[in-house]
Each structure stands twice: as C-alpha cells, then as structure tokens.
Amino acid sequence: MAHALSVFVDSAAASGGTIKEQQLMDDMMVGAGSAFSALRHPENAAVDALEAALSAGVSASDADANARGALSVVHTLASILTGTRPDVPFSLACRVLLPPVLRAWAEEAQEGTEPAAVSAIASLSEAMLGPASPEPSLRRLADFVDDFCGRAGLPCQLPLDPAECGGPRPRQCCDAADPQCGQGAHDVPAAPTWLGQ
What we know:
The chain is mainly α. 61% of the residues lie in helices and 0% in strands.
C-alpha cells in the first residue's frame, strides 16, 4: 500500500498547479481511501489493496501525461535504488523512500517553494487524515506511513549492502545518535520473507 500511496504523492506533486490537478485528485481519492483502509485493517485488505493499486495505475498514467513534466520523486529514487540494489523489491524501495520525501516536501512548505506541489500533496493527506495546514499535513502522512507499514512488519530503512560497509558500521553508515554506532551493534532487522515474493 505504501507503493500506491507513493504513486498518489508523486501524481499529486506532478499535477499540482495544472489543469489536471482537480481531475487527478478526484480520481485518487477512492484509491487513497482504499490504501488508508488497507493499511489500517490489513487482515481484510484484499479488495482495498486491489482498488488502491488500480487507482494508482490510473493516477500514474494521467500524471505522466501532463504538460508540466514534473519529476516523480519517490519513483525516480526507487528506480535508482532498485537499479543499484536488485535485491530490493521496488515496492519496498517506495515504502522506505516515501516518508523522507514527504518530510522534504514539508520543508519546502516551510520555505515557500513548490507551493503547487506541496498544496496538492497536502490535499491528498487531508483527505486521508483530516484537515491541517500543508507542512503538518505532509509530516502526518509520513508518520502514518511509517506507523502502519511498521505495524505490518515493513522496515523503515534498508540494511546497507555489505560492500558499502564491511565489518562494524562506520559512523556515516548508521544513526549518529546511536551510542553503539560503529561497534557492529546497530543492525537493521531483515525484511519479512513474504516481502520479496
């Protein structure tokens, strides 16, 4: 579901400030609601997950055909990540990248840059989580994705490739606030086995 949400975020950002924005928002609301429901109630998620995936596909197709040609940030980064790390499923890459990208967009809201994209993403977030101004709205959506994907057993970060950090992790490869960082004790848990299927 994080993959579907990342499609909606990318589509909203790409169409923000264009004539297609409202049409896309109308199309995405059903899928966003289904994704929200599937994340909140994963035990009954089959129909909601299919509806969210279908709506995400329609949204991606519609957003790609816009004159502004804005970059789909999450999907671009996920493509780079999975190209360099073929062991990482694309949907997991989107899950890991979506919250930091949303938080970066929230910083853009603070700085007043990219107002059309930020406003469009905030509208999507408000439809799922309730009203808030743009910056808190984007941060709330990032926290929601982290929280509910975490409950489903999806990691919030990826383990580093052993070639990137052999042996104990050096300081730049783990959380600098972790007092055991660099001593090999800061390992990221493995993703669930079903994730790669």
